[in-house]
Each structure stands twice: as C-alpha cells, then as structure tokens.
Amino acid sequence: MKLPTDLNELVNESFVAEYYGQSPRTIKLWRYQGRGPTYVRLSATQIRYLWGDVLEHNARRSAISTSEEAVRGLCA
Predict the structure, then answer these.
(1) Residue of 29, 14, 19, 21 lying closest to 54 (CA atoms)
(2) In tens digits, what is the pLDDT along the chain, a chain of 76 residues?
(3) Is 4 part of a structural domain of the chain?
(4) In the chain, how many domains are there?
(5) Is-above-0.85 flag for pTM?
C-alpha cells in the first residue's frame, strides 16, 4: 500500500479500511457511529476521506497509557 503524500488527497473507503486493517463494513459502521475520520460525501453512493483527516483521526485516538485512554474516553 502506497500512502499519499498530499494531505488534501481524497482516498476511498477501501483504502481507509486497508490502512486500518479493517473491513469496509467496519469503516461504514464507524462512520455511522461517528467514531471514524471525518468524510466527504461526493454523491449518495460516493464517500471519500481527506488523507490529512485520516492522520488527524489517528492523532486524536493516540494515548500513551491505558489510564489516559480512560480519561480521554478512548476505550470503546
């Protein structure tokens, strides 16, 4: 998998799923639950993610200890 270098590049749901090691169905569930990266709806059936938003989502979900996870509400 070649990662984008441009933070403004749009990536599709399959790419995001592969990046996280999850199925596209899980990415859809995260989107429905408001747990995943922010997304762009291009049409009724086309969802894309800005690469920079995917990286930002990772930064928001990062913790240095399990106690920090509990304080920040990352356990789910």
Answers:
(1) 19
(2) 899 999 999 999 999 999 999 999 999 999 999 999 999 999 999 999 999 999 999 888 876 677 765 555 555 5
(3) no
(4) 1
(5) no
